[in-house]
Amino acid sequence: MKHEATRLAAACAVLAATIIWDASAVLAQPLEAGIGVADITPPVGYRMSGYFHERLATGTANPLHAKALVLKQGEASAAVVLCDLIGLSRDVSDRARRAAAKATGIPAERILLAATHTHTGPLYAGALRNHFHALAMAEHGKDPREAVDYPALLAERIAAAVKRAAEDAAPARLAAGTAEQRGLSFNRRFHMKDGSVRFNPGMKNPDLVRPAGPIDPCVGIVTVRRPDAKHPAAAVVNFALHLDTVGGTAYAADFPYFLERRLREAWGEGFTLLFGTGACGDINHLDFVNGVRLKTEVIGRTLGDTVSAADLAPLDAPALAVRRTVVRVPLQAFSDEEAAWAKEAIHKVGSRDLPFLERVRAYKILACEMRRDDAPDGKTVPIEVQVLRLSKGCAVVGLPGEVFVDLGLAVKRASPFETTLLIELCQDAPGYIPTEKAFREGSYETVNSRVAPGGGERMVEAAVALLKELGG
Fold this sequence. Notes:
Helix 5 runs parallel beside helix 6. Helix content is 35%, strand content 26%. Strand 4, helix 2 and strand 5 form a beta-alpha-beta unit. The strands form eight sheets. It has a five-stranded mixed β-sheet. The protein has twelve helices and 25 strands.
């Protein structure tokens, strides 16, 4: 028995040594990175997204892009794609991931697609688009605003960006870290003197008491540099601030356009920015207390100064890995009578014949009905959570929807990684994802949410579990 125990101990020691050696061999493999960019600007005249009325594009202030970063290390591979869009429909995401996987060999589940949430991009999917499209078809027999099949074009261009990035892959060095940025972002929900909570309550409103939530001042940064280069060729920059600072009817990428221009001044004209919007479902650029509305270029250039001055640590031991899970959270439910009301009320969305929150509610009910038709059980929303590990000290989390800042902060606090970038609006756009507390308080974001209370907290639990699996 003693000899058997000795042989078992020796075998375990050999196995342990083998595991350690294999892990070291994986970590020692060089990292490759590639960048690919594709223009996704629709034709002038296409509908624009962001507001509850039909808005047609009259020009282009700056082009919209899909920007891809492909990473490879040994047998592991992954892609991150940031798109100048208000959101990604699940259909477009699925098509783009399949096409990119076929073109590059990167498994679809290892491709993270995200929208920046610019409000000066195209309206190509969803309940409002379907409403306006139906009106056009009834009047003209066709939709003159959709001269091209933009969803198909978009999926094709996203896949093309990933393919270009894969072809560009070459040895690279990553560096990562964070910087603090205050004075640009503000929680837009306020406790009022009458006991209510209101979003966007008006500049210097005398009834303001205090913000109903925090901000996230952390700027997450990952730079990509060729071994022989002085400056980064690209960077993923992550900050929690709503991209609704431009307005008008010209296509525009919002403040990340000026952020990229500022970083090109610092790091060269060949630099590419991939901007990942942080958890900012309740965060914008309006300082209601002091009555200040920050300008788009000021935001971008200020962030650029912060990023270019940040003290980043080299990721000398890259350890590329991707994990994902799909959590099915309850979909908000409505009666047949409420659905019938919404179908009538949606015709008043572009007018003032219906109070604003009632217009939002009508749109939300129809959006939920669309989700119900797509759900296998008709009762849940699939929430895909992705985690991309870059090294033992750095990870990227991808979440769908417009995530409240408290939920994003909860993920970061529980993360075992020193640097955790959290990007919202990945793969899908199921509306706002508020906290349970916010649901109790009410106001616009909760009216415009598809998920039932508690869905955001379940998403956080899933993200933290994946982070701990990769960081344990």
